[in-house]
Specification:
The complex is a heterodimer of chains A (about 280) and B (about 250). With about 280 residues, chain A is mainly α. In chain A, about 80% of the residues lie in helices and about 0% in strands. Chain B has one domain (about 40-255): MetI-like fold (Orthogonal Bundle), CATH 1.10.3720.10. Chain B contains 10 helices and no strands. In chain B, helix 6 runs antiparallel to helix 8 (about 165-200). Classes of the chains: A mainly alpha (about 280), B mainly alpha (about 250). At the A-B interface, helix 1, helix 2, helix 5, helix 6 and helix 7 of A face helix 1, helix 4, helix 5, helix 6 and helix 8 of B.
């Protein structure tokens, strides 16, 4: 939710003229900052400023992550986490889009549900996870449902947001062309609200991963989150940090890709609106 | 975000429909799955009353309340301060923003072992976990608000030769209160989540610990009762903050 707000506000106001070298400098500074933090942690751990057993140096984390990848011990867990999150994501994106469309069509429904939508993320949804286990049993489904529940509202709200901002002229064009309802959704509404829907998908990806890994961490028998918790409980810090490193790398990469794709979508939209 | 009209009478009817609708769906789900798996609304309420009157409940609640309150205060103060600095310093903000969003999007629960190793078992780990969850949205909201502040306000601060501290207290914070409150809404819920998660793993006291006990003992009525308690608390506070937010926005528009 929050990144949606900041992105929407920022994209149009970006000053185009001196972005060139300034952007490069910002990126360089950012990389420098990350490198400096990692360097300080490395030093602090190597020189035992902080306990090197409880916080191993980042280089050993990377080495451990590399060994885990090469050995493939946790391949099954990773695939399991990935497949659960993806299932939750697909369900949430489809469900959220349909839900957003419904909210857009039926104003009354939306007015009734509005307090729920606005305070949905105020509720720590993880407390429902134990109930889901009781209902579905201790398998992958509670995790998938948790991810689905966590992601669907972000998708729906952003879909609604995008549908509301479709220029009226496009809807009129659809009417002039005598498009059917499905055609109108597919040819007009979906493309016109794409940037916002993309923001919804981005949040849905983030949320479904958070929910699935968090759920695994809390209570499950397999998966990346479970293995981190397992390694932690066994004082196996090498493995724990290695797995965390992989997780951070994975989430960070996805996030970076999504962020840049989103930026491009919004910029295209801004250009079009400006023209 | 989205504008909603507060039309008093139809609004009240809508809220009534929502609450009744949720209760009916809950009851239906309970009948469908069997009351052993999912207790219905009434039995949950009865169970909640039993939980609250239990002798040690007050101590658990106080423990959670204390940790949550400290975490929230730290998250708000720290978040607003960092947000003001990052908003006022354009370059610093540009450098940090994607990093903050990346931090926001990692499942912080998986970093819990690090927090425990750094802070040890006990209340400080819970507080730290709450702060980690809650501070980032507050920073991002404050930063965005400061960036979009009217230039004339900043110029007048310069004309009056205010010190950075005075600028923050007299110009930046008053001008960005609505966004800070909006950030507070999200920060509030995430801090609550973080504190509860912290209690679920590494604590012998608090609501989160009670939840974990109920999970271990396969005790759905208690889980539902505590979940209901948290849901109602979070929703009520969130709606209260939302109203405050709306009133502030209304005030700045006129």
């Amino acid at each position: 939710m929050i990144s949606a707000v900041s992105d929407n506000q920022r994209a149009p106001s970006r000053n185009k003229r001196w972005t060139g070298w300034r952007d490069h400098r910002v990126v360089l500074l950012r990389l420098g900052l990350v490198a400096a933090i990692i360097g300080i942690l490395e030093l602090a751990s190597r020189l035992s400023w902080i306990d090197p057993i409880s916080f191993i140096p980042p280089s050993s984390m990377a080495a451990s992550a590399w060994h885990i990848l090469i050995a493939g011990t946790y391949r099954e867990d990773m695939l399991l986490t990935l497949s659960s999150a993806c299932t939750a994501l697909v369900l949430a994106v489809i469900g959220g889009f349909a839900f957003g469309l419904m909210l857009y069509r039926f104003g009354r429904l939306r007015r009734v549900l509005d307090p729920l939508l606005l305070s949905y993320y105020a509720v720590p949804i993880f407390v429902l996870y134990p109930m889901l286990i009781v209902i579905f049993g201790l398998n992958r489904w509670p995790l998938i449902v948790l991810g689905f529940l966590f992601a669907i509202v972000a998708m729906a709200v952003n879909t609604l947001n995008g549908l509301e901002r479709i220029p009226i002229v496009l809807l009129r064009t659809a009417r002039v062309m005598h498009l059917g309802r499905i055609q109108e959704i597919w040819l007009i509404k979906l493309p016109a609200s794409l940037p916002f829907i993309f923001t919804g998908i981005k949040l849905a990806i983030v949320y479904s991963f958070i929910a699935v890994i968090g759920g695994e961490f809390l209570l499950s028998g397999a998966g990346l989150g479970y293995q981190i918790a397992f390694a932690y409980n066994n004082f196996d810090n090498q493995t724990m940090y290695g797995l965390m490193f992989l997780l951070l790398l994975f989430v960070g990469t996805i996030n970076l890709l999504l962020h840049s794709a989103e930026q491009r979508l919004y910029q295209r939209r801004v250009l079009k609106e400006g023209a | 975000m989205r504008k909603v009209t507060f039309n008093s009478r139809s609004n009240r009817a809508d809220v009534l429909i929502l609450v009744v609708g949720l209760l009916v769906m809950w009851k239906l789900a309970s009948l469908l799955l069997g009351p052993d798996a999912l207790p219905g609304p009434w039995s949950t309420l009865v169970q909640l009353k039993r939980e609250i009157t239990a002798p040690d409940f007050a101590a658990h609640l106080a423990e959670t309340g204390k940790a949550f309150f400290v975490a929230l205060v730290l998250a708000v103060l720290g978040g607003v301060a960092i947000g003001l600095v990052l908003g006022a310093r354009r370059l610093a903000g540009d450098v940090m923003e994607p990093l903050l969003i990346a931090l926001y999007s990692i499942p912080k629960i998986s970093l819990y072992p690090i927090v425990l190793l750094v802070f040890g078992l006990g209340i400080s780990a819970k507080i730290a976990f709450g702060v980690i969850h809650g501070i980032i949205p507050i920073i991002i909201f404050t930063m965005t608000a400061v960036r979009n502040i009217k230039p004339v306000l900043l110029r007048s601060a310069r004309a009056h030769r205010l010190t950075p501290w005075q600028t923050a207290m007299h110009i930046l914070i008053p001008a960005t209160v609505p966004e800070i409150v909006a950030g507070l809404r999200i920060g509030f819920s995430l801090t609550l989540l973080g504190t509860l998660l912290g209690e679920m793993f590494a604590s012998q006291r608090g609501i989160g610990h009670l939840l974990m006990l109920a999970i271990d003992r396969h005790n759905p009525p208690t889980i539902m009762a505590l979940a209901l308690l948290l849901f109602v608390f979070a929703t009520v506070v969130s709606i209260g903050l939302l109203r405050w937010d709306r009133r502030l926005r209304h005030g700045t528009l006129t």
